[in-house]
Amino acid sequence: EVQLVESGGDLVQPGGSLRLSCAASGFTFSRYWMGWVRQAPGKGLEWVANINQDGSLKYYVDSVKGRFTISRDNSKNSLYLQMNSLRAEDTAVYYCTTDGGYWGQGTLVTVSS
Amino acid sequence: DVLVTQSPLSLPATLGQPASISCRSSQGLVHSDGDTYLHWFQQRPGQSPRRLIYKVSNRDSGVPDRFSGSGSGTDFTLKISRVEAEDVGIYYCMQGTHWPKTFGQGTKVEIK
After folding, report:
1. Contact B67/A at CB under 8 A
2. What is the mean pLDDT of chain B?
């Protein structure tokens, strides 16, 4: 059974940092593009970042460029999102996804003073 | 960025009757590899999104065959042949051809 389990969401002050993790199981992680998608409270979906199978290609939506870094460790079947200089508008549930096919349950990031 | 526009945004549906959602993109979605990366997702209340249809018309594993996708170029449609109570939720189309990947605003399906 495919499982994606996110962790690391928390309440953080504006300007702070957070690192999200996603533990994958039930499929060959290293063969998949992976991504992070977020959903602000009561809002729609926004694709935040993508990474290819070996981590050599990374794409970011403009609103997070220079602040967020996506990475992966295929030896640990894990995906990460390092989030720096957080803003109130980054408040959202962050989902880990295998480029759309499988999704985790999400982890809530709240940026507030 | 590619703008993806869904209509309607609210869809009161009748049990057992068909329903359809339209999705239009501001640019063509044919990738250089020849595929069209237009997908449909369902998000039930309180749940994570679930992909129903990938690359315009391919149903994901376990998706009931009452769901179908069609379209080409910039115009796409999701059809539910006979709405069931479990179909309540928000439906999103998403283009994955151009970066950044972009979603439509979502269509809320409710039972009349």
Report:
1. no
2. 97
